[in-house]
Write a structure and sequence with these properties.
127 residues, mainly alpha, two-stranded antiparallel sheet, 6 helices, elongated
């Protein structure tokens, strides 16, 4: 929770050590354990991922599925959200999400936006 208060997110990269603990790995383990529970491979009373632990993590906005997190954690109506929707439109039209960096699509600099998202993702992975 301290990390959340300090950084305003609960997405530490895998190698992030916070207050002497490998928080990034711990977060990954929580997601993996939660997934096992959702798949029925752990009982609902499992100490490893109890209802209480899930509730505590939900209270700070913990993102359980990183692949889905972007759309679910961004408010509708924001610039990021509208660009993501534009990328979905682009994908429906062209069957890929790799616009050239200089591409302007429907009046927006979609190529530059995608390039920036990939750059931020890479930086995040590097810690």
């Amino acid at each position: 929770k301290d990390y959340y208060i300090e950084h305003e997110h609960v997405w530490p990269a895998i190698g992030v050590v916070y207050k002497g603990r490998n928080l990034g790995s711990w977060v990954r383990t929580q997601r993996e354990t939660y997934k096992l529970r959702q798949e029925g491979k752990l009982g609902t009373s499992s100490v490893r991922m109890s209802d209480q632990r899930i509730a505590l993590l939900n209270d700070i906005g913990f993102i359980w599925c990183v692949n889905e997190s972007a759309l679910f954690s961004v408010q509708e109506g924001t610039k990021w959200y509208s660009m993501c929707q534009l990328l979905k439109d682009y994908q429906r039209e062209y069957s890929h999400v790799h616009p050239l960096q200089g591409l302007v699509y429907k009046g927006q600099k979609l190529g530059q936006w995608v390039h920036t998202q990939r750059k931020h993702y890479k930086l995040r992975q590097e810690g």
